[in-house]
Design goal:
By secondary structure, this protein is an alpha/beta fold. The chain contains 15 helices and 13 strands.
Length: 389
Amino acid sequence: MSRDFKQEIKNLETRHLRRQLRIVESPSDTTIIIEGRQFISMASNNYLGLANHPAVNRAAIEAIEQWGVGAGAARLISGTMTPHHQLEQDLAQFKQVEAALTFGTGYTTNLGLIPALIDRDGFILADRYCHASLIEACRLAKAKLRVFHHNDVEHLENLLKKREKAWPTLVVTEGVFSMDGDLAPLPELLALCRQHEATLVIDDAHGTGVMGENGRGTIEHFGLNPQDLIQMGTLSKAIGTSGGYVAGPASLKDYLINTSKAFIYTTAQPPAIAGASSTAIRIIQREPARRERLRTNRNDLHASLTGMGFQLADSQSPILPIIVKSPERALEMSQALYEAGVYVPAIRPPTVPKHSSRLRLTVSSEHTQEQLENVVRSLQEAGQTLRVI
């Protein structure tokens, strides 16, 4: 083999960009076990504590007993089982749209959605901070692709004005941006799309279950009509399971079933995951106190961090990124917290732009006040020692 992988790993190491896996020896919770030690976890997207909820666990076990572990085939062959059908009904009801279609992961949902919506004769405008799966999906579509400055409505408008009006056009964004925790200006984006006859596509992976009065997502947060755009999301964040979905008109679902390669050629999601997801969605709807606790925890931690002088991104969500700029400093901060019993991985390029390495804290509804006080105390000590604050 001509490629020297060992040397490439050394090069990453030199630039403080090498990543390594850590084995978690316990369920996803506010505390986890790594290398036999207990840590307060500030690194999970399990925003509402549903990934290890007894009722969600029980639903998965019961589904395995009734339906088995695997679906055995792609959805269009013999892989569509009753739990899949029920989950899609539950998602459509939750999102207040006509229909939903599920995929194996959020990443493959985007790969299956965008290229099915547009081809090489179209035009895509994507926010600069869109998730890698969205950018990859846009490239896969082979349409003309332009990236607009993050949340910059004026830049987007200028690009829309310059395009050939005959080009079918998608505007692609996240609802809650996964690395900064800020929100897309959806009302303004939707108004521009209407004006320029473009279609707005939103990835609401981190908004679903979290944003809006009923947890329906960023669209509800802004009071928009879900019929006016196309949304996708994941089951792996606040819902606490695994997979992705597209929610919209029934005609869109039918179209994707017939055109989306990521749907057509993939074995169906395990029925146990579908059953567990339906249960989690029902818990989200009947237990609003979880979101209330989440918002209280988020606001308290945000106030503590800014009060100590940490530089935070412009977050309006449970994602609280502490910007430390250099990859080396991010690793040093992460290690200092690790030694103090707090688990927060360093986020470095290419996941985030150069000179914006960070510690990405994510808050859960299930974090206790004592846990968050310990996190704040450990962050203050590490920040002062390393001269971040």
